[in-house]
Amino acid sequence: MYEPQRRIPFGFHGDWGTVYKKIVDLDKAKLSDRDIAFENNFYRDIGASIQFKPTEEITITHEQALKGLKTETLYTTVETTDSYWDDDMKDFVCCVSIGDLVNVLGRLWIVTGLKEKVKYSPNKLSFFYLELTSIN
């Protein structure tokens, strides 16, 4: 379902990554080696590589999640054009959603934001910008 059906190639500027979707019905799903755990949830590899292109430098901050404990957190934005056809929306939709986990650029990230920019030439071309936050 989430496998890309439309992709505008980036050439040598893109990096291939893995996308993990949250397993909603854990009772029916059998966990496999394609699954990862994060914050008491399980996520499954969608089974297809997605191409990402960094659009800005990685920002490094030191955040204090717990009193007295500072951790390094990274932020970045990446672009993808990988999308699939959604019958309900009657349109192509990004293969990645807010809340998904993404393994790209050498680390694991959570998707915290998603924006779409559209160009017409003459067909609609969607470019998706994903805001990522590192997972330590």
Describe the structure.
The chain is an all-beta fold. 0% of the residues lie in helices and 58% in strands. It is built from no helices and eleven strands. It has strands spanning 15-22, 35-38, 41-45, 50-54, 59-66, 69-80, 83-86, 91-94, 101-104, 107-120, 124-134. The strands form two sheets. It has a six-stranded antiparallel beta barrel. It has a two-stranded antiparallel ribbon with strand order 7-8. It is globular and about 55 Å long. The chain starts with 14 loop residues before the first strand and ends with a strand. The relative contact order is 0.24.
Our Rg estimate from Cα atoms comes to 16 Å
Overall mean pLDDT stands at 87
Uncertain parts: none
Q: What sort of overall outline do the alpha carbons produce when their principal axes are compared?
A: globular
Largest sheet entry: 6 strands, antiparallel, barrel
Distance between the termini: 29 Å
Major sheet: arrangement of strands: 1-4-6-11-10-9
- Helix-residue proportion: under 10%
Q: Please give the count of helices.
A: 0
Following the backbone from N to C, one meets helices and strands in this order, namely EEEEEEEEEEE
Strand share of the residues? Answer: over 45%
Count of distinct strands: 11
Protein structure class:
mainly beta
